Amino acid sequence: SDKSNITGVYVDHITMRQALRQLRIFLEEGGVHTIFTPNAEIMMDAHTDHSLKSILNGSDMVIADGAGVVLASKILGVSLPEKVSGIDLVRNSFSISMNPKIRYFLFGSKPGVAEQAAKNILLRYPDVEIAGCRNGYFREEDNEAIIDEINSSNADILLVALGAPKQEKWIYSNKSSLKVKVCIGVGGSLDVFAG
Ligand code: UDP
Q1: Which of 39, 56, 108, 166 makes the best surface tag, with the fewest CB within 10 Å?
Q2: What number is the ipTM of this complex?
């Protein structure tokens, strides 16, 4: 889709409906896709953090999380059609009905949070399967075991909730080892689903 340059970060010029359609295409295609959902603060950070900027610009979809980004786009004269936040995209994705069901792995947040989020999601969204959960506090030497756990779970979508920019950098560094179809950086969303 079209992209709008917002202070150096190329944000997809899409509505929620189009983002969901694109997500479905990613699930049907081969390969690992990445979706990032930077808010205004992270967009500012990307201005000085060039590795973050190139990670965002090298991803398959960047959506504007927060009214601040949509407002900035208006000021810059590249009006984004609407705010598509990461949490809303993920929430709406739980209602995408596919056969077999979409399998999610919930990675990140404090111990117990992903499991509680999984329970709440399963109660509310019958079209979802949870492939696994793993908290977001680990040492570098645990990383390989985490990748193995995610890959052997056969997850389709990996939700990475390590906070920004940690989750963006983790996804970028580990993309080539992952077998999931889509990785999404989701910030504090697992805390919200668990709450
Ligand atoms: N988090 C994590 N590992 C870390 C640091 C943070 O799993 O090493 C989790 C934290 O528990 C929270 C999430 O990342 O669930 C988002 O954190 P924060 O609200 O600070 O980030 P933001 O939403 O601003 O990106």
Answers
A1: 166
A2: 0.94
